[in-house]
Amino acid sequence: MLSFMIVCFIWLIHSDVIYSIENTTVSGQRRFGYVNSSVTQLSVPEDHHVCLPCQGPDVIWTHQNTKVLVTRRGSYQTYQDRRRYILLMDGSLCLLKLDDSDGGEYQCNQQLVAELQVLTGNDFQVSAGWTLLLPCRGSFKTKQRWFRQREREKKEVIFTRFRNGTEKPERDGDRLSYTNNALQIRDLQPEDAGEYQCNGVLQARVSVLEDAVEIKNKTKKKHENVLMLVAVSGFVLMTISLVTVCALLISTKCRRRNRKYKYAEKGHVDTELSG
């Protein structure tokens, strides 16, 4: 009974700690702006282009909440650089010829709309959960066949874009599409790591970094394992203690019983001798 109460107590502590970890992590993410499903997180190679969504007749686009890029009020528009930025009718902003300075947060009407990572070279490190754009470079064919080769695995076709614009995802279902004149991989996962080729030309080597959610899940799992180990160890120790106590009690009781029988037998012998 005592061991059962102790195990229940340890389990309650375990559940309470896990609940606290989850709430602390989520609240911390919300406080620092990590949890926002409406924010587009894009990783795009340099020298490519990308369009960021926003809707409204009057818009003010800013970069890193300080640099004003484009404004529109009625028919009046202002541009920080007309060669780099295009404002679409629906309020979306297109960035041309991306470079390192374009990375960061983008706000439309003071609301965070997108986080942009500009990738350089051919070795890309992208956070899990982000959207990766891969333009087909070095091939002038209208038809595009995209291949992925994971480490120690065979090359496989993952996406085909035909000459008439028809798209055929060969793998990963609706996570693959063609937009911004590039192969788009949404919600990047660790299994997306590998080499990517378009029409036989190497485009990128992609490494997928763990995001905050995965780190949180691993931390949670680690705490769960530690607490479960403590609970099991406590249960085993308590069981051993109870067995030891029971053995001592039984041994003591047996010794007392033996003494009682011994004294009774001695008294019986003395009675017979005196008779």
UniProtKB/TrEMBL annotation:
SMART domains xref list: IG, IGc2
PROSITE patterns, per database record: IG_LIKE
Transmembrane segments: 226-250
Residues forming coiled coils: none
A UniProt-annotated Pfam family: V-set
Domain called Ig-like: residue spans: 114-198
Signal peptide: 1-20
Keywords: Membrane, Signal, Transmembrane, Transmembrane helix
Record protein name field: Ig-like domain-containing protein
Organism: Nothobranchius pienaari
Taxonomy of the source species: Eukaryota, Metazoa, Chordata, Craniata, Vertebrata
